[in-house]
Design goal:
The chain has four helices and two strands. The protein has 98 residues and is of the alpha+beta class. Helix 2 links the parallel strand 1 (38-43) and strand 2. It is elongated, with a radius of gyration of 15 Å. 9% of the residues are buried.
């Protein structure tokens, strides 16, 4: 719920926060006629925090569709410390951010 609110997907939490950056033209959508714009972002998203939510929110504003890639447990182990949440838990967390 908190993450969804931080992403601007909830209208009841944090006093009715909405995703309203598009009218500010801080992150204007790049448009070429009627072309569909897909934005890709990947990450570990092991412990979801404000920085993750903010990055996802900013990426979402850049296009019509946000595709989120999730780094596998094996890749995290090869490059970082062991993940706190399993791959399944992180997939559930990220997929709930629609």
């Amino acid at each position: 719920m908190v993450t969804a609110a931080l992403l601007g997907l909830s209208t009841s939490y944090f006093g009715g926060m909405t995703n309203s950056w598009s009218h500010l033209e801080i992150f204007p959508k790049k448009r070429s006629g009627k072309r569909h714009v897909r934005v890709y972002m990947d990450g570990c998203f092991d412990l979801m925090h404000y920085g993750h939510a903010n990055a996802l929110r900013q990426a979402k504003v850049l296009g019509d569709e946000l595709v989120v890639g999730l780094v596998s447990d094996e890749e995290i182990l090869a490059n970082k410390s062991p993940p706190v949440l399993s791959m399944e838990e992180r997939m559930t967390l990220v997929s709930g951010l629609k």
